[in-house]
């Protein structure tokens, strides 16, 4: 399979955008956790919120540019609703892992990303960007 043919495959573009967004979101979370809110009680939760703002914005722009086209407002509302579920899970699990299980915030977030990434993948594929006839 040629590289150009691979890039034409919507599934490959979908996964590439998701991987890029996950990496950027984790880097933003890490930056804020380590350098901006390092001395703030529960600062990792502020970092989490900021990383989701960046992640949602970046992901929607990239998905719309490289993966799907269509109804911007409807897609955006659905897109955000998938991320609201993910951030809800993340916001509940992160303090549990950090404060109760005593996992360092960056490692805890990495574990949670595994779950929320899968959830987001299926949520976006089956709900956010689902088109009639799929």
Topology overview:
Blueprint: H1 3-8, H2 10-36, H3 43-66, H4 72-100, H5 105-128
Order of helices and strands: HHHHH
Radius of gyration: 16 Å
Helix content: over 70%
So what's the overall shape? elongated
What is the beta-strand fraction? under 5%
User: Biggest sheet, open or closed, and with what strands and sense?
Assistant: none
Structural class of the helix and strand makeup?
mainly alpha
Mean pLDDT: 88
Tally the beta strands.
0
| Number of DSSP helical runs | 5
Low-confidence runs of at least 5 consecutive residues: none
Distance between the termini: 25 Å
Structural write-up:
- There is one protein chain.
- The protein is mainly α and 134 residues long.
- Helices cover 82% and strands 0% of the residues.
- It is built from 5 helices and no strands.
- Helix 2 (10-36) runs antiparallel to helix 3 (43-66), helix 2 packs antiparallel against helix 5 (105-128) and helix 4 packs antiparallel against helix 5.
- The radius of gyration is 16 Å and the shape is elongated.
- The mean pLDDT is 88.
Q: Nutshell version of this structure?
A:
By secondary structure, the chain is mainly alpha-helical.
Characteristic terms for this protein:
single chain; 134 residues; mainly alpha; 5 helices; 0% strand; elongated
